[in-house]
Structure formats: C-alpha cells, structure tokens
Write a structure and sequence with these properties.
The complex is a heterodimer.
Chain A (H helix, E strand, L loop, with lengths): L1 H14 L1 H11 L3 H18 L9 H16 L9 H7 L14 H12 L2 H11 L4 H8 L3 H19 L2
Chain B lengths: L2 H11 L9 H8 L6 H21 L3 H9 L3 H27 L7 H39 L1 H12 L8 H49 L1
Classes of the chains: A mainly alpha, B mainly alpha.
Chain lengths: ~160, ~220
C-alpha cells in the first residue's frame, strides 16, 4: 500500500515539478537554497498526500502546499558543512545562471517581482500561472475583491520599481 | 499590455528552461526529514512545557520544610492543585492548536494556526513567570510579617542557631537575596524569550500582518 502510494505520489510530482521549481526560483536566491526549498516542499507534499482525495487536480492541490511551505514553513538554513548528505541526494539540476536567456526588459521585470514581499510574490506568482481570482483568493485566504485590489496595487508597485 | 502581462506570456512558454529532477531524485527526498518552522516550534514548545512542569516538581526539601515550618502546608497544597489543573489545560490547548496546523489550509489560516499554537505556549510561560513572581512576593510579605518565626525556623533548619548571625542581619540578607534572585531570574527569562520569539517568528508575523492589511 505504502509502495503504491509512494509510486503514485512521485509520478505525479515528477510530472508537475515545474510548479515547485518556479516557486523555488521566486523565493530563493541561490541553487543550494533552491534545492533545500524543493526538498522541504516535497516532504510537506508527501506528508499531506494521504489526505489528497483527488477531488481536485493534483497540480491545483500542490499550489497551496508549496506556497505555504515557501512562505511560512521553510526556514533558510545556514550553509551546510556536511556535504556528504547533500551529495547523496545528487540533484541533477542544470547549473545555468538564473533567467539568463530572458530579454532585458523581462529580466528586469522578473527581478522586480523578486524584490516584492513574500505575500505579494505569491499573488503575482498565481497571476502569472493564470489562476482565476477565485482560486488566488482561496489559496491566500483573502476575499476575491481584496485579491483584485491588491493585485492592481502590486502592478503599480512593480511599475514604480521599473520606472522610478 | 504592461510588462507584467508580457512576463505572463513568456512565463508559460519558458518552462523547458526549468530544472528537471528524475523519479529517483524525488523518491530519495521522501526519506529526508523536514526542517520546517512548525517542527521547530513544536520541539521548543515541548521543551518549555517540560521545563516548567519539571520545575514545579523539583523543590528542594529544605525549602519545603521552611514552608511547613511557617505553617503554610495547606496553602501550598491548594496552590499546587490549582497550578497542575492550569498546566493540564494549557497542554490540552497546545495539543489541540498544534493539531489544527494543516499545510493544506489557506496561507492565512495556516499562519493564524501557527501563531495561535505559539501563543498558547507564550501564555503558559507568562502564567508561570507571573505566578512565580506573585508567589515570591506573597511569600515574602508573609515571611516579613512573621520574620521572627522565619528566623527561628531557618536557624533550626540550617543549624546555625548558635552562630553570631543576629535576627536583624539575617532578615536584611534574606530579603535582599530573595529580591536580587527574583529580578535576575525574571530578567534572564524575558531576554531569552525575546530572542527566541524574535528569531522564530519574525518572518511569520511580518507576512501575517501583510495579509491582514489586505483585508482592511
């Protein structure tokens, strides 16, 4: 039973890992923290998985757990000394520099988003993921109206950062 | 179309640039231990509950005899019963709040539940510090009103009845020592909690107030 559960979980996470990577990129600033956060999100997802009933899509369910982990549960670690532990996990992440290929303007925009606070970042992330406001507001735990108002304020804020 | 919408357009089409982990990489992660803030809070809270519970049990025998000698045996028993009842309710509420922390809740609800759990322990500690301070003050007032008897009990208890320590000198030293000890211990506790809460909850509190601001 556990084996089946594990298999089902890992398969679905593997297929939807993009979501987690995107969150990790927004909330961390280096590869090591990215890996740490990815791991913590995986653990939290796995812990919550037995309660996932499949009445919503796996990916939809993931957003909440992953964002909750990035915003609230994740504690940034001090630089690790025991590299042995790290190597054993052996992430096969391409060591490419962050968003190097983006156009200059988009790159600036992305950098501006990264300077936002944790909550605004979550709002923008869900917006970029093309989530409806209903889902955004439910994920954050605020009303739909407030989510819309806040989003337009964040857009203003981003405009100001880009054109001071 | 503003820049954010441009980014949104690009956002979906650039997914192939994201890292890719294999089935085995992800599988290995399941075996790792979480290091989430909730886990930290849980361990620290348990340590605090244990510390204060044990502290209530460890009372030097000599101090107990002084209390008995001063005729406060019954008062002590009543105080202890009330104390333990309050302990049990705190532990119950802590457990209940801890269980309510669900990673599948909304961002706001999750933060609310974590802060609530932490608050239970905070009140527990405040209760203990407050009760200790009150008891220290209460006992000392009582001792002061019965200082002659205190001198007799103490000199009998510690066997220095025949030394040159006069009653006046003893009373001065006794109350001064009580006061200094009380202030030092209280100060250290407050400092300890300020640092602990500061480190653990700074980010959480900031984010929670950010979300609450949206509701205004």
């Amino acid at each position: 039973m556990t084996k089946e559960l594990e298999h089902s979980f890992v398969t679905q996470l593997e297929a939807n890992q993009n979501i987690v990577h995107k969150i990790c990129r927004l909330y961390t600033h280096d590869q090591e923290s990215h890996n740490d956060l990815f791991q913590e999100i995986t653990i939290q997802l796995w812990k919550a998985f037995p309660k996932f009933r499949g009445d919503s899509k796996f990916s939809t369910w993931m957003y909440r757990v992953a964002l909750n982990t990035a915003i609230t549960l994740y504690r940034k670690k001090k630089r690790r000394v025991d590299t042995g532990d790290f190597e054993s996990v052996s992430f096969k992440i391409k060591a490419e520099p962050y968003d190097d290929t983006m156009d200059k303007q988009l790159k600036l925009m992305y950098q501006a988003v990264k300077t936002l606070n944790d909550i605004d970042k979550a709002l923008v992330f869900l917006y970029l993921e093309d989530k409806p406001y209903k889902e955004i507001s439910e994920t954050l735990g605020i009303s739909e109206v407030n989510a819309r108002v806040k989003m337009s304020r964040v857009k203003d804020k981003l405009r100001q950062i880009l054109n001071p | 179309m503003d820049e954010l919408d441009l980014l949104k357009k690009e956002w979906q089409s650039r997914e192939q640039e994201l890292p890719t982990l294999s089935y085995n990489d992800i599988y290995k992660m399941l075996l790792k231990k979480s290091s989430s803030i909730v886990k930290w809070i849980f361990y620290i809270s348990i340590a605090e509950l244990l510390f204060w519970t044990l502290l209530a049990f460890v009372m030097p025998e000599s101090s107990e005899e002084v209390v008995d000698g001063m005729g406060m045996h019954t008062a002590m028993i009543i105080i202890n019963i009330v104390h333990y009842l309050i302990f049990i309710s705190f532990i119950y509420y802590f457990y209940k709040n801890y269980k309510s922390i669900q990673v599948t809740d909304s961002v706001k609800q999750l933060m609310k539940n974590i802060l609530k759990t932490r608050k239970t322990v905070k009140y527990f500690v405040m209760y203990n510090v407050g009760a200790s301070a009150l008891m220290l003050i209460g006992f000392n007032i009582y001792y002061y009103l019965n200082k002659h008897r205190l001198f007799e009990v103490m000199s009998g208890e510690f066997g220095w009845g025949n030394t040159q320590l006069t009653e006046d000198k003893f009373i001065t030293v006794f109350f001064l020592a009580q006061l200094i000890m009380g202030v030092v211990i209280l100060g250290l506790l407050l400092l300890f909690y300020r640092i602990l809460y500061g480190i653990l909850l700074r980010r959480l509190k900031r984010n929670y107030s950010e979300l609450k601001k949206m509701e205004v």
